[in-house]
Specification:
Helices cover 35% and strands 27% of the residues. Strand 9 and strand 10 form a beta hairpin. The chain is α/β, with parallel strands linked by helices. The longest helix is centred in the C-terminal third of the chain and has 18 residues. The strands form two sheets. The protein has a six-stranded mixed β-sheet with strand order 6-7-8-3-9-10. Strands 2-1-4-5 form a four-stranded antiparallel β-sheet. The two termini are 21 Å apart. Helix 3 packs across helix 4, helix 3 runs parallel beside helix 5 and helix 5 runs parallel beside helix 6. Bound molecules: adenosine-5'-diphosphate (ADP). The site of adenosine-5'-diphosphate (ADP) has 11 residues, from strand 2 and helix 1. Adenosine-5'-diphosphate binds next to strand 2 and helix 1.
Amino acid sequence: MSEPVLQLKGITRTYRQGESALAVLSEADFVLFPGQSVALVAPSGAGKSTLLHVAGLLERPDAGEVLINGVATSRLSDDARTALRRNAIGFVYQFHHLLPEFSAIENVMLPQMIGGLSRHQARARAHELLDYLGLGAREKHRPAELSGGEQQRVAIARAVANAPGILLADEPTGNLDPHTADHVFAALETLVEATGLATLVATHSQALAAKMTRRVTLDDGAVREMD
Ligand code: ADP
């Protein structure tokens, strides 16, 4: 079997407010392999976003280790973590967070240019990705000129623009009607199948979770397999 792209080992994350402490993650372990699409299904407040932020190196845990492609990250500098995140991890959120003044294709080009590609190279890859996601005819439109489902597909294209091995998504279809959500999820599945990308998707949707290869939940701050 191939090496895991993401490993969480004994992750603990506690939020302190004055005297009180809220243990959101407690000894959480999780392993994600290439090509897996895993649904993270748990009630609001259970710690899904916290888990995704820790896994995506946006937040440091209080204890435990996050390994990205086998690399332990706890002792890396913030700059090294940022570089690793930029190359290895893509994010999709409930709201698209596209830059409003840029076109769809420019939004997908930007992370690649920040990563060092020329404008020409970035444009070629952005075009290919948007075309692949059925947005070829929409690439010059700004976010406000796109439907909610189209905006989310652009956000997915942007998230995978630097060809990460891991895609983390926090309620990516939570803001869409069921039909559009299906369409957006199908786009995600296509990418997973074509690229061997591994995805961890926090969702409330049982229908979406049922289509994924694995389902996990959070139980008192620990990750538990659901089936
Ligand atoms: P979910 O994504 O499952 O809804 P979250 O990870 O957003 O859960 O939050 C888990 C718990 O941690 C919630 O009770 C939330 O209020 C709390 N929490 C999240 N972020 C912070 C923070 N920065 N400071 C204090 N408490 C937080």
